[in-house]
Records
---
Amino acid sequence: MAFTDPVVITCAINGPIATKKDHPRLPTDPEEMAAAAEAAHQEGAAVVHCHIRDKNGFPTVDKVRVKECLDAIRERVPDVLIQLSTGGIEPAYADRAAQVELLPRMASLNPATMTFGLAEFRNPPQEMRKMAARMKELGVKPELEIYDYGHVDLAMTLLKEGLLVEPLQFSIVLGVAGGAAATPANLVNIVNNLPSGAAWQIIAVGRYNLQLTTMGVAMGGNARTGLEDTLMIRKGELGDNGSLVKRLAGICKAMEREVATVEQTLKLLRLPELKAHA
Ligand code: KMH
Ligand code: ZN
């Protein structure tokens, strides 16, 4: 990845934690998610990262509901690349992993079990390998979620085991209580440990989200925003997915970095062809 490459913007439209009490416009049902994906795409997001919620707004991996959400987005914004989250504290790993059978173009792959605030984020090593193998079979591009230094080494082990295909794509998630802190030094050091040719973006949780996202763009990375990462567009003002992407696209352009189209994203991230079920 080079400074001259366009920036792939991902919009994480909802996440698994915030509720409508936190933000009344948080998209949780299929039509709301489709509208959020459309707004984000119109402002420059080539990828939308989605968590699925049930009718009451709780995280779910119910296949019917997952399919409803994917179909609603595909119908309204056929071009946008959908990245389904396989993360979350609940439900059990195998059920989270089974979502890849619904063939999103991309999905998150969290390589390590860890403390996540007061919760346990369980990604059992053998089941995680099974999911990586299945994603490879199906042509679903994994995004490796790196919360601490050792997680890069774990990703490299998966590559050596033949479970991943280069170029690897990383999200460096900083600021989770249980992972590395959201500091410039951690971002620089983790990026320096990535294999050459990898694509990466920063996900900074909390107070320094905007500053570290901007730093990632200045360093030549891709970029992510959206209500999963920050509910506020500025102090005291709730944001929306469209307005957060618009601001991020403006930051990229101010640094004379082009915002990647979907077509450019397919090439930059070298997304594999999706395969029918084997
Ligand atoms: N929520 C972030 C801490 C995932 O969904 O698998 C990281 C994330 C990963 O978005
Ligand atoms: Zn997520």
---
Amino acid sequence: MSISAIIAAAGSGERFGAGIPKALIQLADRTLLEHAVSSLAPVADQIIVTTPIGFEKQISELLGDGIVVVTGGATRSASVRNGLAVATGDYVLVHDAARALASTDLATRVIAQLQNGEVAVVPALAVVDTIKVTDSDGFVVSTPDRATLVSIQTPQGFKTSALRDAHASASEATDDAALIEAAGGKVKVIRGEERATKITTPADLNTALSHLGLGKEIRSGIGTDAHAFGEGRDMWLAGLHWPDEQGVEGHSDGDVAAHAICDALFAATGLGDLGSNFGTDRPEYAGASGTRLMQECAALVKKEGFAISNVSVQIIGNRPKIGKRRAEAIAAISSALGGVQVSVSATTTDGMGLTGEGKGIAAIATALVSKQ
Ligand code: CTP
Ligand code: MG
């Protein structure tokens, strides 16, 4: 049994809004169209691609020899008809380039049903939303039982002669199976796959990337620090100098907010902690300011391939009062970290514990980082 595959790629991708045909959008290492071709190539004897008018040469060069390129039509159905006109297989798969990641396995399962004698086969997923039929005035007409509804995908498989007949008698539909249905034919539904979902808007590319195992990896981290107040020390906190406040002990400037943030970032990225990166065995950091440590930490995080989404720090102590300088603190931290989103809050502990008794100051921070 010989199989032709028609890949409908003649759409303009209006909703995607890239200004180029959607099939030519890049997803990881290749275009959507190349993804679609590579998953059907192992099972098809002939591959036909319908292109937007004027893109025939570019697409032909992109795909190389052995792919039949035909100009598409004004509608998807018209494009498929142009492909059908040159199809040589006894059976035909009709596929959307926009469902770029549909697997070879799915196509194989469609073909298996055709081998079983089915005339039309469509993959589908159960719908998750309740679907309503509405009228043109915006009122609900009915609510079909969700359990009976499925969401249709491609590749759809057909006996070529049956699909040709269906296209000859009923010309427009959003999928090919609908034309078979209109002609009274039986359409077999098989289990579809999430990765065959259609790419319509730029947001769908993130989902597609995660199907390729290239999604964003998101990680959080937590860090804390505490220092006791010390005589004759300047107070540095959240990257700022606090001239009227008593400072804290420590071999650095004792900026607990900066230290907690660094620890949170190191935790999120699996890079160890403040001690392992800037500890006493790294004399070049002795006495380093909180700002410098945050700068160095951000550089290490970046070098590891992570981007900082945000950091949040809470300062725990009776003083200094943060409120009046909160905006300044946020700006100082954000600038040290390379312009990330920062929040700074403060709390006391109702007179309890070391900071409540006024013996020192502490901070707790969280960080969110991501890696493509
Ligand atoms: N398609 C086609 N010929 C057309 C219209 C659409 O071959 N005249 C193809 C598209 O290239 C796509 C598939 O049919 O692979 C499904 O269509 P859709 O997702 O709607 O893609 P576009 O029409 O390109 O997108 P939009 O509707 O946002 O413009
Ligand atoms: Mg369209």
